[in-house]
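The material for today's practical consists of a large collection of protein records. Getting from the letters to the tokens is the skill we practise here. To make this concrete, we reproduce a full record directly below:
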Amino acid sequence: TTLTIGATNSTGNSLSITNGGRLFTVGAILGTNSSFNSAAVVGSNSLWNVGGVLHVGFGSNTSYGNSLLIDAGVVTNVTSISVGGTFSSGNTLIITNGGRLFSPGAFTVIGRSGTGAFSTNNTATITGNGSRWDIGSQTLNIGQSAGGRSNRLWITDGGLLTNGNVNLGTGASDANNNHLVLLDRKSTRLN
């Protein structure tokens, strides 16, 4: 079944997968019309098989501050992902300490909006040697459609974004001020 962490008008809900824990779902929403919800996949043997679409922040203008942390763990089988969906802001994805995210699906977006909507100040960070986001030959859109503004992808300290392309500000004339930031020359690459 689809997992919802933080349903309408709720706040501060959390999911933790640690110490080799494994979770299998059929898609997931982290904060739908809901704020400050979190999910963490921590430890080298910890796994979340999403098995469908993953939204980190989705819904009305009360959907903000939701976060997904992948700290040495693995999140896989993500058919599509949005970090900051329509009418949401300030949502985060962090991949660190060798964590891995595999999302070879139809859409991969940081800041996805639409007509009359907004999606702003959403951030994804890939940091640390071995930390990787594999987008499976798809295109990552940073700031998509009208109102997709001020969204960011940070790649630092050896982090990798692999197997795809990147578009900054796509689909509308006001998808502005979106950024891809490479912070060092250590071993950071965009493949």
Remarks:
- The chain has a mean pLDDT of 85.
- The two ends are 34 Å apart (CA to CA).
- DSSP finds no helices and 21 strands in the chain.
